[in-house]
């Protein structure tokens, strides 16, 4: 029963976040909270005092006064949209400025953690069932590595797997971030779609990673690990492995319905020789189990000759079976740790691989973070230096394949990497350089 003029007067004392919140109360509050007079005042207060003109979305720039023309000539909510657009643009610019500085060791932004903290970034998953109902899962546990972050969600009220259709992974940031106060979970937020996964027939359409007494692990590309309870067909936890390459862009610059698309690579005129092949590539490789590191290694001067191009792949041999000087020992025994509110465990004979392949100019060429299973090979070790069982691990996506061979030394209780080969798709190389292999 309160007159609209009185409500508008009250709303005029609110900040932007409170206005957005009060607009969710009902239809009348929404219309009043869109008042151009209130938002124009907020917009003008956010500008530099010396500014006398307002930059509009159109190509033309027109002078705007704070009088009636700026209010009545615009549709309700116009200045609200202008204010939000200005604030989010400034926010994105501030965050992306932090990731311009690259680590010469990995070729990735060296201030990822600082940028994530400044942005108030978090990640959530949205499970959608076959009836269209959505279930939002928040409160993840984070584990940071040199080149990736592992995000783990678990709970007690997961929907039954049989009724689920899709899982969406979002980056979430405050719609109107304020550096002076921590982000409010209940405040307005912006969603950026990172990946979408189809859960129908999960056990058939995914890669089985391993199992322990309680759960079975299944991998979905890119980088998602789903733990299923053995005794009932329900999700125990979901683990996302996010590589730092373009992580902030995908978590901030996308929309709620469309993923962020990175700009195409601009190659140098003489940075590839189709007769010689690839040259001067670098690899940074991490193998870990979420909470523990098994291997952290860097490899320089990788190359591929033209004769090494076969079946649509260019081969980069990193560790040679016959060159024992480059064989790599593994710290500890492989396994992926998981936990829920009540239970925790460790699925053996699998690990998370973080791969960062840099081209000859130091740009990230092929990057991923994904769970990888191991398998016992039928062949025995033919190496004089190592007598033990051989295990293989393989990973493949649209950009390439990775093949690794390990030897298990029973006496010292350790694995040794005796072979590591990368197979890069010719389609990836052609799109990167604009060539035709």
Q: Can you walk through the features of this model?
A:
Pfam families: F-box-like. The chain is built from nine helices and 22 strands. With 437 residues, it is an alpha+beta fold. The protein folds into three domains: 75 residues, no CATH class; 141 residues, no CATH class; 156 residues, no CATH class. The strands form four sheets. Strands 11, 12, 13, 14, 15, 18, 19, 20, 21 and 22 form a ten-stranded antiparallel sheet that branches. α4 packs parallel to α6 and α6 packs antiparallel against α7. The longest helix has 21 residues. The protein starts with a helix and ends with a helix. About 4% of the residues have low confidence.
Count of domains: 3
Q: Give the tally of β-strands.
A: 22
Biggest sheet details: 10 strands, antiparallel
Q: What amount of the residues lies in strands? A: 35-45%
Q: Which class do the helix and strand fractions yield? A: alpha+beta
Keywords: Signal
Pfam families: F-box-like
GO cellular component, one term: SCF ubiquitin ligase complex
Signal peptide: 1-16
Write the layout of secondary structure elements.
Blueprint: H1 4-11, H2 16-22, H3 27-33, H4 36-45, H5 68-72, H6 78-98, H7 112-119, E1 122-129, E2 134-137, E3 141-144, E4 148-154, E5 164-174, E6 189-198, E7 207-211, E8 215-220, E9 224-229, E10 235-243, H8 247-252, E11 281-288, E12 293-302, E13 309-310, E14 313-319, E15 328-329, E16 335-339, E17 344-348, E18 350-358, E19 364-380, E20 389-397, E21 400-409, E22 414-425, H9 426-433
Antiparallel strand pairs: 1-2, 1-5, 3-4, 4-10, 5-6, 7-8, 8-9, 9-10, 11-12, 11-18, 13-14, 14-22, 15-22, 16-17, 18-19, 19-20, 20-21, 21-22
């Amino acid at each position: 029963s309160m007159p609209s003029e009185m409500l508008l007067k009250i709303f005029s004392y609110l900040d932007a976040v409170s206005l957005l919140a009060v607009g969710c109360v009902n239809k009348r509050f929404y219309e009043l909270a869109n008042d151009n007079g209130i938002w124009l005042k907020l917009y003008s207060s956010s500008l530099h005092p010396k500014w006398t003109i307002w930059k509009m979305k159109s190509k033309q720039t027109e002078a705007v006064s704070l009088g009636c023309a700026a209010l009545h000539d615009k549709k309700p909510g116009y200045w609200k949209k202008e204010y939000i657009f200005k604030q989010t643009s400034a926010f994105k610019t501030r965050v992306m400025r932090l990731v311009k500085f690259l680590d010469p060791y990995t070729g990735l932004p060296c201030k990822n953690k600082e940028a994530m903290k400044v942005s108030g970034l978090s990640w959530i998953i949205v499970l959608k069932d076959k009836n269209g109902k959505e279930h939002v899962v928040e409160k993840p546990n984070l584990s940071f590595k040199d080149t990736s972050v592992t995000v783990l969600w678990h709970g007690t009220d997961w929907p039954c797997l049989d009724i689920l259709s899709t899982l969406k992974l979002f980056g979430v940031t405050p719609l109107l971030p304020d550096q002076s106060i921590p982000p409010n979970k209940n405040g307005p937020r912006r969603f950026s779609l990172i990946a979408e996964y189809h859960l129908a027939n999960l056990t058939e359409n995914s890669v089985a990673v391993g199992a322990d007494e309680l759960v079975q692990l299944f991998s979905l590309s890119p980088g998602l690990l789903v733990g299923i309870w053995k005794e009932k067909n329900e999700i125990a936890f979901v683990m996302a492995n996010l590589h730092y390459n373009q992580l902030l862009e995908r978590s901030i610059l996308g929309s709620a319905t469309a993923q962020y698309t990175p700009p195409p690579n601009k190659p140098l005129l003489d940075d590839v020789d189709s007769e010689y092949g690839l040259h001067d590539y670098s690899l940074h490789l991490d193998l870990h189990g979420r909470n523990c590191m098994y291997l952290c290694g860097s490899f320089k001067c990788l190359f591929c000759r033209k004769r090494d191009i076969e079946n649509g792949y260019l081969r980069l041999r990193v560790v040679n079976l016959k060159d024992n000087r480059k064989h790599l020992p593994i710290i500890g025994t492989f396994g992926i740790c998981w936990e829920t509110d009540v239970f925790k465990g460790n699925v053996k004979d699998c690990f998370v691989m973080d791969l960062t392949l840099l081209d000859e100019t130091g740009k990230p060429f092929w990057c991923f973070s994904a769970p990888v299973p191991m398998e016992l090979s039928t062949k025995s070790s033919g190496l004089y230096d190592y007598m033990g069982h051989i295990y293989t691990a393989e990973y493949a996506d649209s950009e390439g394949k990775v093949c690794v061979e390990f030897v298990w030394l029973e006496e010292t209780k350790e694995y040794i990497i005796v072979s590591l080969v990368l197979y890069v798709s010719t389609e990836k190389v052609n799109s990167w350089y604009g060539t035709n292999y």
